[in-house]
Amino acid sequence: xxxxxxxxxxxxxxxxxxxxxxxxxxxxxxxxxxxxxxxxxxxxxxxxxxxxxxxxxxxxxxxxxxxxxxxxxxxxxxxxxxxxxxxxxxxxxxxxxxxxxxxxxxxxxxxxxxxxxxxxxxxxxxxxxxxxxxxxxxxxxxxxxxxxxxxxxxxxxxxxxxxxxxxxxxxxxxxxxxxxxxxxxxxxxxxxxxxxxxxxxxxxxxxxxxxxxxxxxxxxxxxxxxxxxxxxxxxxxxxxxxxxxxxxxxxxxxxxxxxxxxxxxxxxxxxxxxxxxxxxxxxxxxxxxxxxxxxxxxxxxxxxxxxxxxxxxxxxxxxxxxxxxxx
Length: 327
Fold this sequence. Notes:
- By secondary structure, this protein is mainly α.
- The protein has 16 helices and no strands.
- The protein has helices at residues 2-6, 12-24, 30-46, 52-56, 66-86, 89-106, 111-125, 132-142, 147-163, 167-178, 188-203, 207-224, 233-243, 247-260, 267-283, 287-303.
- Helix 11 packs antiparallel against helix 12 (207-224).
- It is globular and about 65 Å long.
């Protein structure tokens, strides 16, 4: 039911409203009500709605019906997963841990693989990179049917390759995830991967390929209104547009992102917006103002114990190999 609600090809809220009317009319058993409740929490979290945190307290943690508990497990996990995208890393750890604990009572062991992958994703965001690729691979072997394990291994491997200046290898890893945009029912992973590709291309002074890579992903971002997903795409695309001399497009995207985040509880995305504003100011040669705008970006990532992803990496480590965009 959650998958139906969040499928980007469907109108999630319209679907959910119909399901909730069915509940109100007495057309669902307790497990059905739990499924609808879990779907609402997922949609709220995906939009960065601040009301989601209090509603989590209403989830049943005790029930004789194992299916009710399993819906609570899924809700706790899904909101925990989305908390990473929003930038609430501490909340993410708490929710992911609780989902794993409850899954044992609910006899839902599959959730463990997802939780372990997200814990390593948090390690990647915090720059705890020692042995990261090997640990990701081990989870993939333990849970071979989880596509997410392979995706996050590629993302982590691409991040580490970028840090080592292995640009072509980084593009291969990110390209694998970006190519999944036509087969996944959500766009978040592919948007993260495209943002990473754009950053690598810009680091090698390849703005035309960077923008041509970013443009269709920006269209996906606008179409799905995925502003509160912590993808890094807005800042990367703004940087690419500016590098191509298209300030109007860069400013429009920044303005769209700011409007899209109004009312959201999404620290990672507001941090990215600060960086974006700094890039726009830097383009006008107002260096002091640019530093002032970008400083909250660094402060928010420090508060979340994050290293800032690709934006924290220096191109000074690059080798002389010049990459081109994968088609």
